[in-house]
Write a structure and sequence with these properties.
Elements lengths: L9 H4 L4 H20 L2 H7 L3 H12 L3 E2 H8 L3 H13 L3 E5 L7 E5 L1 H25 L1 H18 L12
Antiparallel strand pairs: 1-3, 2-3
Helix pairs in contact: 4-6, 4-7, 5-6
């Protein structure tokens, strides 16, 4: 963003107004909308929607995630996840295997086809992020990472999702 209302000294940022905070929330909303919308044409080729994307993304990010963990991180019901997984498994994108420690638990992984699809989806999103980061500059990138890490940590106090976010 080139709007000067976002360039404040550190002391001013400690006392953000409600309107400035609302602008930040709106900025996150529209940034997320842009990043996510980039995968829609690719998903459409397979007859998939954003629920399929979210599952592919999380399973690809965390191989061997189990269904309970997936429902937790996606904040959806087991029924919703199973509907999506059924399709992804039948299409050869995801495979499930029983955990050795408990045969009731299924570990999820992307297949080779799933990994190719995940890479195709990620490529377009990385390009959007790369362009924005390059325009913003190193200090803005660092600040953005710090803010998003704090948002994630407050949503997940046990730190599970942030484990792959940090370098």
């Amino acid at each position: 963003m080139t709007d000067n209302s976002y360039s404040h000294s550190n002391e001013q940022l400690l006392y953000l107004t409600d309107d400035q905070l609302k602008q930040g929330i709106e900025a996150l909303f529209f940034a997320n909308k842009k990043i996510i919308s980039k995968v829609d044409p690719i998903l459409a080729k397979y007859g998939y929607g954003r629920a399929h994307y979210r599952a592919i993304f999380m399973i690809g990010s965390r191989p061997d995630i189990n269904i309970t963990q997936l429902t937790t991180v996606l904040s959806v019901s087991k029924q919703s996840v199973n509907r999506v997984l059924r399709r992804l498994k039948s299409d050869g994108i995801v495979r499930a295997r029983r955990a050795e420690f408990d045969k009731r638990v299924y570990r999820l992984r992307l297949t080779a086809s799933g990994e190719r699809l995940a890479e195709e989806l990620s490529t377009v999103q990385r390009q959007v992020m790369r362009e924005a980061y390059m325009r913003a500059g190193p200090s803005a990138v660092s600040g953005f990472r710090t803010v998003t890490e704090h948002l994630i940590e407050s949503a997940y106090p046990y730190g599970w999702p942030i484990s792959t976010f940090k370098q």
